Structure formats: structure tokens, C-alpha cells
């Protein structure tokens, strides 16, 4: 297949976006990021009655600087959920996690030993990495992964434009490939067409380096 940056990015997007079928769970875990659409989606799922508890996890980092005024991105997400109609008493805040692994393990520890089923809400293009991480770090939980119902074309924003999105998807695929050997994630099958798109993007200088500090 002859690629352009956009077509190669779309191949990665389609791989990363998995959207598990959802059913009622013990808790909804919203993984904090630069995108408040994740908080809104988590709130929607709570208001639909899919879980009695909504936990937001995340400290924040370079990708949230200037976007939130709260002490943590988890608190900013909680405020957004309250604006959407979620009662404050239903929300738990985990303000320490700085990467997906920490957000999942800190949430797991905060909920232990109660929650055994969880809906994890992340950015659309982070779902596959979340699934791989929770399978390794929280294997006892029945975990379902979902995200805002955002299209590839609509995902970029003014504060997180297309170029950053593509870098992030390349970086996340690098982690999917490398982290199982480190014990951070469960190994995932990666189709050849995805590897080819990934290699093409790296050859264009899009290697995920803009978020190199994000584990």
C-alpha cells in the first residue's frame, strides 16, 4: 500500500480504537488526559446507569499544561463530570498517576478489594494500550475499554492538533511493541499493515518523540 501521512495515521487509529461491548460494572475509571471529552463520556456512561462509582485518575503533565487550572487532571475531569450532572458523592479522585500504567494500578489499589469489573474510558486512540496494560496490571478485573465516540477527522483540537495526534499514536504503538518484554503490558498481535504504516511514519520523522517523557 502506498501511504501518505494521513492514510498511515488512519491505519494506526483503526488499530488503536477497539471499543469493547459494554455492560454494567462496579466502577467507571476515567483516565485523565488533555481531552475533557473523556470526562464527558465517562459521565454519560455513569448517567446511563452503567456503574455506581466514577473514578478519575491522573496528575497531569506536559500535555495538560495550560489546559487545566486544578491541582490535578483528575480533579478537572471530576469538575467536568459534575457539570454534566454526576453527583459529587459518586466520584473518587486519584490525583497521582502520571502515565497509563500508574493510573490503572493506582486506581486498582484505591478500589481494592471491592471492584471486580470496570469500564475504562480513555482517549479513542489509547484504547488498545489501555487494554494491554490492564490485562497485565489488573488481571483479576473484568475490564471493558471504551472512549468518546469521536471520529479520526474530529479528534484533533486546537490545543492538540493532527501532528501531535500522529506522534502520540506512533508512541503508543512503540509501547505496545516494547512494553510486554518489560512486564508493563500483555503482548498484543499487531497486523503487518499496522507495522508498515508505523514504519512509514517513523521514516517521515514522526517517531513519538514529542511525548518521550510519557511512560
Automatic annotation (TrEMBL):
CDD domains: YdcF-like. GO terms for cellular component: plasma membrane. Coiled coil: none annotated. Pfam families: DUF218. InterPro entries: Cell_Envelope_Assoc (IPR051599), DUF218 (IPR003848), Rossmann-like_a/b/a_fold (IPR014729). Residues 26-171 form the DUF218 domain. This is Uncharacterized SAM-binding protein YcdF (DUF218 family). The lineage of its organism: Bacteria, Pseudomonadati, Pseudomonadota, Alphaproteobacteria, Hyphomicrobiales.
